[in-house]
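To assess whether ligand presence alters the predicted conformation, the chain was also submitted together with uridine 5'-triphosphate. Input:
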Amino acid sequence: MKVPQSTPKPIRKAVFPVAGLGTRFLPATKAIPKEMLPVIDRPLIQYAVDEAREAGIDQLIFVTGRGKTAIVEHFDTAYELEHTMSGRGKNLEVLDPTRIQPGNLVTVRQQVPMGLGHAIWCARAVVGDEPFAIFLPDEMMVGTPGCMKQMVDAYNEVGGNLISVLEVPESEVSSYGVIAPGAKVSEQLTEVRGLVEKPKREDAPSNLIISGRYILQPEVMRTLEGQSAGAGGEIQLTDAMAKMIGTQPFHAVKFAGRRFDCGSKTGFVEATLSLALERDDLADEVRAVMTRLLAQ
Ligand code: UTP
């Protein structure tokens, strides 16, 4: 496997595909994008953007669709709100995470949700000829440092393409993209020999599933170009990445941290409870509530 001799090109751009329909959360997501559902007091998209910034990435590309304007508004200046709050002597610091350097947020449109691979391809003109990160905001990655920071550190060692992976019980592999692991570079870093989307349990090459963070080289856009639909009738990112293996370095980073699948209702509730139990301002009260409910 080719490993870069010099420092690889920095990762400056992040793509957030947010054009999906969010059908598993209907009717909540009929008028509100799934990515705006709050875990405690921040919408899912905010957690993903915070993680990108921690990793030194500040050019944000949102792939949006119909009914998704709230996501962009969230990162805009709410002039009337700020004016009113200031007038009442309220602290505006709570809005700081929503502030973006002018010009650093770009949206592109995916008119029809034809799958994750298609959504990424919609960002091709803005990504240009640079490596870039991808965040699926409904997968919440909680760790210190954050998942993307761990990946960027690994990228600075090996370059090429990286995906974040997690171990799951074998009975669950058929719901995910799964990697065929190659040689181990370190405890956290493994070469990737192949990728399969939603394999049958008996055909799965491992129990390491792709979680929602990627660092990819721009050539993936050419691979996505003209790619036909795969599993579920959607244009799959996993299929495009699988085609790149062997032509470029491809590694998996085992994320040291926790993943919450906030695209599912149970995962969403778990994320909410888990984060509440870690917050100084909430932990005691929430623990008391949980104890009371469990005793019923
Ligand atoms: P999901 O499949 O988890 O989201 O896609 P979904 O389709 O919105 O949700 P359900 O299954 O109907 O409940 C993962 C991410 O990819 C985006 C979604 O917005 C989500 O952030 N996505 C998915 C797109 O942007 N375009 C697509 O065509 C599909």
